[in-house]
Design goal:
Distance between the termini: 15 Å
Mean pLDDT: 94
Protein name: Thiolase C-terminal domain-containing protein
Number of strands: 11
Shape: globular
Number of helices: 13
GO molecular function, one term: acyltransferase activity, transferring groups other than amino-acyl groups
Largest sheet: 9 strands, mixed
Strand content: 15-25%
InterPro entries: Thiolase, Thiolase-like, Thiolase_C_2
Number of domains: 2
Helix content: 25-40%
CATH class of the largest domain: Alpha Beta
Radius of gyration: 19 Å
Oligomer: single chain
Pfam families: Thiolase_C_1
Protein backbone atom coordinates (compact mmCIF):
# COMPACT_ATOMS: atom_id res chain seq x y z
CA UNK A 1 0.00 0.00 0.00
CA UNK A 2 1.00 3.60 -0.67
CA UNK A 3 0.23 6.75 1.27
CA UNK A 4 -2.43 7.78 -1.25
CA UNK A 5 -4.29 4.55 -0.52
CA UNK A 6 -5.25 6.00 2.87
CA UNK A 7 -8.62 7.76 2.75
CA UNK A 8 -10.76 9.93 5.00
CA UNK A 9 -14.27 8.57 4.61
CA UNK A 10 -16.25 10.21 7.40
CA UNK A 11 -16.48 13.72 8.82
CA UNK A 12 -18.43 14.85 11.86
CA UNK A 13 -18.67 18.37 13.30
CA UNK A 14 -21.09 19.15 16.12
CA UNK A 15 -22.70 22.58 16.55
CA UNK A 16 -19.94 25.07 17.33
CA UNK A 17 -20.89 27.41 20.14
CA UNK A 18 -19.39 30.14 22.26
CA UNK A 19 -20.49 28.12 25.29
CA UNK A 20 -22.10 24.67 25.29
CA UNK A 21 -24.37 23.07 27.88
CA UNK A 22 -22.70 19.70 27.18
CA UNK A 23 -19.33 18.41 28.38
CA UNK A 24 -16.19 17.49 26.45
CA UNK A 25 -16.90 13.77 26.48
CA UNK A 26 -20.40 14.30 25.11
CA UNK A 27 -19.31 16.50 22.20
CA UNK A 28 -16.44 14.15 21.31
CA UNK A 29 -18.89 11.25 21.27
CA UNK A 30 -21.45 13.26 19.28
CA UNK A 31 -18.80 14.11 16.68
CA UNK A 32 -17.75 10.45 16.48
CA UNK A 33 -21.34 9.36 15.84
CA UNK A 34 -21.70 11.99 13.12
CA UNK A 35 -18.47 10.94 11.42
CA UNK A 36 -19.36 7.25 11.49
CA UNK A 37 -22.82 7.97 10.09
CA UNK A 38 -21.28 10.12 7.37
CA UNK A 39 -18.97 7.22 6.49
CA UNK A 40 -21.82 4.72 6.46
CA UNK A 41 -20.09 2.69 9.16
CA UNK A 42 -20.97 1.42 12.63
CA UNK A 43 -18.83 1.78 15.73
CA UNK A 44 -18.16 -1.94 15.52
CA UNK A 45 -16.29 -1.33 12.26
CA UNK A 46 -13.68 0.68 14.15
CA UNK A 47 -10.54 -1.13 15.30
CA UNK A 48 -8.30 1.86 15.97
CA UNK A 49 -8.76 5.18 17.74
CA UNK A 50 -6.90 8.42 18.40
CA UNK A 51 -8.94 10.42 20.90
CA UNK A 52 -7.66 12.16 23.98
CA UNK A 53 -9.99 11.00 26.76
CA UNK A 54 -11.75 14.09 28.11
CA UNK A 55 -13.36 12.37 31.12
CA UNK A 56 -15.09 11.71 33.35
CA UNK A 57 -14.98 7.96 33.82
CA UNK A 58 -11.59 7.16 32.41
CA UNK A 59 -8.19 6.63 33.94
CA UNK A 60 -6.04 9.48 35.19
CA UNK A 61 -3.17 8.28 32.99
CA UNK A 62 -3.33 10.93 30.28
CA UNK A 63 -4.17 11.02 27.47
CA UNK A 64 -6.05 7.73 27.76
CA UNK A 65 -7.29 6.81 24.27
CA UNK A 66 -7.57 3.23 25.55
CA UNK A 67 -10.49 4.31 27.73
CA UNK A 68 -12.57 4.64 24.57
CA UNK A 69 -12.57 0.85 24.15
CA UNK A 70 -14.81 0.62 27.21
CA UNK A 71 -17.16 3.33 25.98
CA UNK A 72 -17.39 1.86 22.48
CA UNK A 73 -17.73 -1.64 23.88
CA UNK A 74 -15.27 -3.13 21.40
CA UNK A 75 -11.66 -4.31 21.49
CA UNK A 76 -9.19 -2.08 19.65
CA UNK A 77 -6.20 -3.25 17.67
CA UNK A 78 -4.46 0.12 17.82
CA UNK A 79 -4.59 3.36 19.80
CA UNK A 80 -2.75 6.60 19.03
CA UNK A 81 -1.82 8.78 21.97
CA UNK A 82 1.21 10.76 20.80
CA UNK A 83 -0.95 13.68 19.61
CA UNK A 84 -4.42 12.26 19.06
CA UNK A 85 -5.96 15.05 16.97
CA UNK A 86 -5.66 16.59 13.55
CA UNK A 87 -2.78 15.92 11.19
CA UNK A 88 -0.49 14.04 13.63
CA UNK A 89 -3.35 11.65 14.42
CA UNK A 90 -4.05 11.23 10.69
CA UNK A 91 -0.40 10.39 10.03
CA UNK A 92 -0.33 7.94 12.95
CA UNK A 93 -3.55 6.35 11.73
CA UNK A 94 -2.13 6.02 8.22
CA UNK A 95 0.94 4.29 9.63
CA UNK A 96 -1.24 1.91 11.63
CA UNK A 97 -3.31 1.01 8.58
CA UNK A 98 -0.29 0.68 6.29
CA UNK A 99 1.37 -1.72 8.72
CA UNK A 100 -1.75 -3.79 9.33
CA UNK A 101 -2.34 -2.70 12.93
CA UNK A 102 -5.81 -1.40 12.11
CA UNK A 103 -8.23 -1.15 9.20
CA UNK A 104 -10.50 1.71 10.29
CA UNK A 105 -9.47 4.49 12.68
CA UNK A 106 -11.66 7.03 14.45
CA UNK A 107 -10.16 10.42 15.38
CA UNK A 108 -12.38 12.53 17.61
CA UNK A 109 -12.13 15.30 20.18
CA UNK A 110 -13.22 18.74 21.28
CA UNK A 111 -14.12 20.71 24.36
CA UNK A 112 -17.31 21.84 26.10
CA UNK A 113 -18.24 23.13 29.51
CA UNK A 114 -14.67 24.26 30.18
CA UNK A 115 -14.47 27.91 29.15
CA UNK A 116 -15.11 31.07 31.12
CA UNK A 117 -13.71 32.72 34.19
CA UNK A 118 -10.63 34.24 32.57
CA UNK A 119 -8.49 31.12 33.03
CA UNK A 120 -5.69 30.27 30.63
CA UNK A 121 -6.26 27.20 28.47
CA UNK A 122 -5.09 23.92 29.97
CA UNK A 123 -2.71 23.30 27.06
CA UNK A 124 -0.79 26.48 27.94
CA UNK A 125 0.07 24.93 31.31
CA UNK A 126 2.24 21.91 30.41
CA UNK A 127 3.80 19.97 33.27
CA UNK A 128 6.85 22.17 33.72
CA UNK A 129 7.87 23.43 37.16
CA UNK A 130 7.96 27.08 36.10
CA UNK A 131 4.91 27.04 33.82
CA UNK A 132 2.33 24.70 35.30
CA UNK A 133 1.41 26.96 38.27
CA UNK A 134 0.67 29.96 36.07
CA UNK A 135 0.49 29.25 32.34
CA UNK A 136 0.34 32.07 29.83
CA UNK A 137 -2.19 33.43 27.41
CA UNK A 138 -1.50 31.86 24.04
CA UNK A 139 -1.66 35.23 22.29
CA UNK A 140 1.34 36.43 24.27
CA UNK A 141 3.55 33.63 22.92
CA UNK A 142 2.60 34.51 19.35
CA UNK A 143 2.93 38.24 20.04
CA UNK A 144 6.64 37.78 20.74
CA UNK A 145 7.03 36.53 17.19
CA UNK A 146 4.76 39.17 15.69
CA UNK A 147 6.56 42.08 17.37
CA UNK A 148 9.89 40.98 15.92
CA UNK A 149 8.41 40.52 12.47
CA UNK A 150 6.81 43.95 12.43
CA UNK A 151 10.09 45.51 13.53
CA UNK A 152 11.53 44.11 10.30
CA UNK A 153 8.50 44.59 8.05
CA UNK A 154 6.30 47.41 9.44
CA UNK A 155 4.09 47.40 6.35
CA UNK A 156 2.83 43.92 7.31
CA UNK A 157 0.50 45.35 9.96
CA UNK A 158 -2.00 46.55 7.36
CA UNK A 159 -1.81 43.22 5.60
CA UNK A 160 -2.48 41.39 8.84
CA UNK A 161 -5.65 43.39 9.28
CA UNK A 162 -6.73 42.62 5.71
CA UNK A 163 -6.18 38.90 6.29
CA UNK A 164 -8.21 38.90 9.50
CA UNK A 165 -11.02 40.91 7.91
CA UNK A 166 -11.19 38.56 4.91
CA UNK A 167 -11.38 35.35 6.94
CA UNK A 168 -13.81 36.81 9.47
CA UNK A 169 -16.07 38.03 6.66
CA UNK A 170 -16.11 34.53 5.17
CA UNK A 171 -17.05 33.16 8.59
CA UNK A 172 -19.81 35.70 9.11
CA UNK A 173 -21.56 34.31 6.01
CA UNK A 174 -21.31 30.70 7.26
CA UNK A 175 -24.47 29.92 9.24
CA UNK A 176 -22.64 27.20 11.17
CA UNK A 177 -19.89 29.53 12.41
CA UNK A 178 -19.75 30.86 15.96
CA UNK A 179 -19.47 34.35 14.44
CA UNK A 180 -22.25 33.89 11.88
CA UNK A 181 -23.89 37.17 10.94
CA UNK A 182 -21.32 39.31 12.72
CA UNK A 183 -19.68 40.72 9.57
CA UNK A 184 -18.67 41.84 7.09
CA UNK A 185 -15.43 43.31 8.40
CA UNK A 186 -12.90 45.78 7.08
CA UNK A 187 -9.22 46.05 7.85
CA UNK A 188 -9.98 49.23 9.77
CA UNK A 189 -12.42 47.31 11.96
CA UNK A 190 -9.56 44.99 12.90
CA UNK A 191 -7.15 47.84 13.62
CA UNK A 192 -9.75 49.72 15.70
CA UNK A 193 -10.78 46.70 17.80
CA UNK A 194 -9.79 46.59 21.49
CA UNK A 195 -6.08 45.81 21.96
CA UNK A 196 -5.23 42.48 23.61
CA UNK A 197 -1.46 42.13 23.40
CA UNK A 198 0.73 44.23 21.12
CA UNK A 199 0.42 44.06 18.12
CA UNK A 200 -2.83 42.06 18.21
CA UNK A 201 -6.31 43.45 18.66
CA UNK A 202 -9.32 41.34 19.54
CA UNK A 203 -10.16 40.79 15.86
CA UNK A 204 -6.63 39.62 15.01
CA UNK A 205 -7.02 36.66 17.36
CA UNK A 206 -8.87 33.35 17.11
CA UNK A 207 -11.92 32.36 19.08
CA UNK A 208 -12.16 30.19 22.17
CA UNK A 209 -15.29 28.15 21.64
CA UNK A 210 -16.85 24.76 22.32
CA UNK A 211 -17.85 21.77 20.21
CA UNK A 212 -16.53 18.51 18.78
CA UNK A 213 -14.97 17.27 15.54
CA UNK A 214 -14.15 13.82 14.18
CA UNK A 215 -12.93 12.02 11.08
CA UNK A 216 -12.83 8.35 10.08
CA UNK A 217 -9.82 6.95 8.22
CA UNK A 218 -9.57 3.67 6.30
CA UNK A 219 -8.17 2.16 3.11
CA UNK A 220 -8.98 3.49 -0.33
CA UNK A 221 -10.15 0.01 -1.32
CA UNK A 222 -12.75 0.03 1.42
CA UNK A 223 -13.58 3.69 0.82
CA UNK A 224 -14.78 2.97 -2.71
CA UNK A 225 -17.71 0.99 -1.26
CA UNK A 226 -18.77 3.82 1.08
CA UNK A 227 -21.19 6.72 0.41
CA UNK A 228 -18.86 9.62 -0.42
CA UNK A 229 -16.08 10.18 -2.97
CA UNK A 230 -12.86 9.20 -1.18
CA UNK A 231 -10.42 11.91 -0.10
CA UNK A 232 -6.90 10.53 0.09
CA UNK A 233 -3.71 11.50 1.89
CA UNK A 234 -1.19 12.76 -0.68
CA UNK A 235 1.56 13.81 1.70
CA UNK A 236 2.22 15.04 5.21
CA UNK A 237 4.96 16.53 7.35
CA UNK A 238 5.64 17.70 10.88
CA UNK A 239 8.21 19.97 12.55
CA UNK A 240 8.59 19.53 16.31
CA UNK A 241 10.92 22.05 17.92
CA UNK A 242 10.05 21.71 21.61
CA UNK A 243 7.19 21.35 24.07
CA UNK A 244 4.60 24.01 23.44
CA UNK A 245 4.26 27.03 25.72
CA UNK A 246 7.22 26.37 28.01
CA UNK A 247 10.16 28.37 26.61
CA UNK A 248 9.36 31.67 24.88
CA UNK A 249 9.44 31.54 21.10
CA UNK A 250 12.47 33.15 19.41
CA UNK A 251 11.70 34.70 16.04
CA UNK A 252 14.89 33.47 14.39
CA UNK A 253 14.06 29.89 15.38
CA UNK A 254 10.35 29.70 14.71
CA UNK A 255 9.46 32.07 11.88
CA UNK A 256 9.97 29.41 9.21
CA UNK A 257 8.75 26.44 11.26
CA UNK A 258 6.87 24.18 8.89
CA UNK A 259 9.23 24.71 5.95
CA UNK A 260 10.87 21.30 6.34
CA UNK A 261 7.48 19.66 6.87
CA UNK A 262 6.12 21.32 3.72
CA UNK A 263 9.03 20.21 1.56
CA UNK A 264 8.52 16.66 2.80
CA UNK A 265 4.78 16.72 2.14
CA UNK A 266 5.03 18.23 -1.34
CA UNK A 267 7.76 15.76 -2.29
CA UNK A 268 5.59 12.84 -1.15
CA UNK A 269 2.66 14.19 -3.15
CA UNK A 270 4.72 15.02 -6.23
CA UNK A 271 3.19 18.50 -6.44
CA UNK A 272 4.04 22.06 -5.40
CA UNK A 273 2.34 25.03 -3.74
CA UNK A 274 0.93 26.20 -7.06
CA UNK A 275 -1.14 23.00 -7.25
CA UNK A 276 -3.06 23.74 -4.04
CA UNK A 277 -6.66 24.84 -4.59
CA UNK A 278 -7.63 25.71 -1.01
CA UNK A 279 -5.65 26.20 2.21
CA UNK A 280 -7.13 25.36 5.59
CA UNK A 281 -4.30 27.02 7.51
CA UNK A 282 -4.12 27.26 11.28
CA UNK A 283 -5.27 30.86 11.66
CA UNK A 284 -4.63 31.28 15.37
CA UNK A 285 -3.94 34.92 14.55
CA UNK A 286 -3.75 37.12 11.48
CA UNK A 287 0.04 37.15 11.10
CA UNK A 288 0.28 33.38 11.46
CA UNK A 289 -1.60 33.03 8.16
CA UNK A 290 0.98 35.20 6.38
CA UNK A 291 3.83 33.35 8.10
CA UNK A 292 2.56 30.03 6.78
CA UNK A 293 2.44 31.32 3.21
CA UNK A 294 6.15 32.09 3.54
CA UNK A 295 7.17 28.92 5.37
CA UNK A 296 5.21 26.61 3.06
CA UNK A 297 6.80 28.03 -0.06
CA UNK A 298 3.99 30.09 -1.55
CA UNK A 299 6.13 33.22 -1.44
CA UNK A 300 9.47 34.57 -0.25
CA UNK A 301 10.57 35.91 3.17
CA UNK A 302 8.71 39.02 4.24
CA UNK A 303 6.17 38.62 1.43
CA UNK A 304 3.40 36.76 3.27
CA UNK A 305 0.93 39.60 3.71
CA UNK A 306 1.62 40.92 0.21
CA UNK A 307 1.05 37.44 -1.21
CA UNK A 308 -2.27 37.11 0.60
CA UNK A 309 -3.50 40.45 -0.74
CA UNK A 310 -2.22 39.98 -4.30
CA UNK A 311 -3.41 36.39 -4.65
CA UNK A 312 -6.72 36.75 -2.86
CA UNK A 313 -7.58 34.45 0.03
CA UNK A 314 -11.33 35.06 0.06
CA UNK A 315 -13.80 32.75 -1.61
CA UNK A 316 -13.39 34.69 -4.87
CA UNK A 317 -9.58 34.65 -4.70
CA UNK A 318 -7.00 32.39 -6.29
CA UNK A 319 -6.23 30.61 -3.00
CA UNK A 320 -9.35 30.51 -0.80
CA UNK A 321 -8.10 30.15 2.76
CA UNK A 322 -9.94 29.06 5.91
CA UNK A 323 -13.12 28.73 3.90
CA UNK A 324 -15.40 27.97 6.86
CA UNK A 325 -14.24 31.12 8.67
CA UNK A 326 -11.34 29.35 10.35
CA UNK A 327 -10.32 29.66 13.95
CA UNK A 328 -10.93 33.39 13.65
CA UNK A 329 -14.66 33.09 13.00
CA UNK A 330 -15.83 29.49 12.68
CA UNK A 331 -14.52 27.92 15.88
CA UNK A 332 -11.50 26.99 17.99
CA UNK A 333 -12.26 23.99 20.19
CA UNK A 334 -8.94 23.39 21.92
CA UNK A 335 -7.52 19.94 21.21
CA UNK A 336 -10.28 19.36 18.66
CA UNK A 337 -9.45 22.43 16.55
CA UNK A 338 -6.84 20.69 14.33
CA UNK A 339 -9.48 18.14 13.31
CA UNK A 340 -11.76 20.97 12.16
CA UNK A 341 -9.12 21.75 9.52
CA UNK A 342 -9.29 18.21 8.18
CA UNK A 343 -13.09 18.31 8.17
CA UNK A 344 -13.28 21.49 6.09
CA UNK A 345 -10.61 20.26 3.65
CA UNK A 346 -12.52 17.01 3.10
CA UNK A 347 -15.82 18.78 2.56
CA UNK A 348 -14.25 21.12 0.02
CA UNK A 349 -12.76 18.22 -1.92
CA UNK A 350 -16.09 16.40 -1.85
CA UNK A 351 -17.84 19.53 -3.16
CA UNK A 352 -20.17 19.78 -0.15
CA UNK A 353 -19.66 23.38 0.94
CA UNK A 354 -22.55 25.12 -0.77
CA UNK A 355 -22.11 28.89 -1.04
CA UNK A 356 -18.52 28.69 0.16
CA UNK A 357 -17.50 25.88 -2.22
CA UNK A 358 -14.20 26.34 -4.05
CA UNK A 359 -14.98 25.45 -7.65
CA UNK A 360 -13.08 22.43 -8.93
CA UNK A 361 -11.09 21.92 -5.72
CA UNK A 362 -8.82 18.89 -6.14
CA UNK A 363 -5.96 19.52 -3.67
CA UNK A 364 -6.22 21.01 -0.18
CA UNK A 365 -3.80 21.78 2.63
CA UNK A 366 -4.86 21.23 6.23
CA UNK A 367 -2.50 22.52 8.90
CA UNK A 368 -2.05 22.77 12.65
CA UNK A 369 -0.17 24.79 15.30
CA UNK A 370 2.44 27.42 14.45
CA UNK A 371 5.32 29.62 15.48
CA UNK A 372 4.28 30.52 19.02
CA UNK A 373 3.53 26.86 19.78
CA UNK A 374 6.94 25.90 18.33
CA UNK A 375 5.65 22.95 16.32
CA UNK A 376 3.80 22.62 13.05
CA UNK A 377 2.11 19.97 10.96
CA UNK A 378 0.36 19.80 7.62
CA UNK A 379 -1.29 17.32 5.31
CA UNK A 380 -2.01 17.47 1.61
CA UNK A 381 -5.34 15.89 0.73
CA UNK A 382 -6.76 15.18 -2.69
CA UNK A 383 -9.59 13.62 -4.58
CA UNK A 384 -8.96 9.95 -5.24
CA UNK A 385 -8.11 9.26 -8.85
Amino acid sequence: MRLDEIAIVGVGVTPQLKRSDRNSLQVALDAAKLALADAGLAHTDVDGIAARWPGPGGTVLAPGSADWSTLLGIPLGWIGDSYPQGIPALVDAAGAILTGQATTVLITGGQAGVLGGGRVAAYTQPGNEFVEPFGAFTAAHFALVAQRHLARYPHARQGMAEIAATIRTVGSANPDAVMAGRGPYTAQDVLDAPPVVDPFTLLDLCLASEGGAAVVVTTLERARDLPHPPVVLLGAGMDWMRQQYVDPARYEQVWDIGAVAARKAFAQAGIGPADVDTAQLYDVNSLEVARQFEALGFCGPGEGTDFALATGIGLDGKLPTCTDGGLLAFSHIGWGAPTLKLAEAVRQLRGQCGDRQVAGAEVAIAAGAGSGAQYYNLALLGRAR
